[in-house]
Amino acid sequence: MNIIVGNKLKKLRQAKNMSQEEIADYLNISQSAYARMERGESTSWATHFNKICALFEIKPEILVSKNEEEFKNYEKESDSVEIVNQLSEKIIEQYEARIKELKKTIKNLKRKE
Prior knowledge:
By secondary structure, the chain is an all-alpha fold. It is built from 6 helices and no strands. The protein has helices at about 1-15, 20-25, 30-40, 50-55, 60-65, 70-110. Helix 2 (about 20-25) crosses helix 3. The protein is elongated.
């Protein structure tokens, strides 16, 4: 079970683009203690179970399930959310750029009056 959870922890951390040290800080443990969790050498993940699930925004059963299909579905879901977030950011950037252009146009029109 430790290896299963450890592999999931590693994938979840990498998906969030976080370092082991960042996760360890969040859990108030050393980086080496967290690294042991990822390698499946420690059961201390159970002590931090709720914080881990909250950090990665996952249901507890996803973390401990031996069913890899559930985890793959979660990964696909989180990839989709990330794509939507990226697209939203790009749309916002485009709107902000358009607003700047329109403000310049309005300013130029006011000068001509």
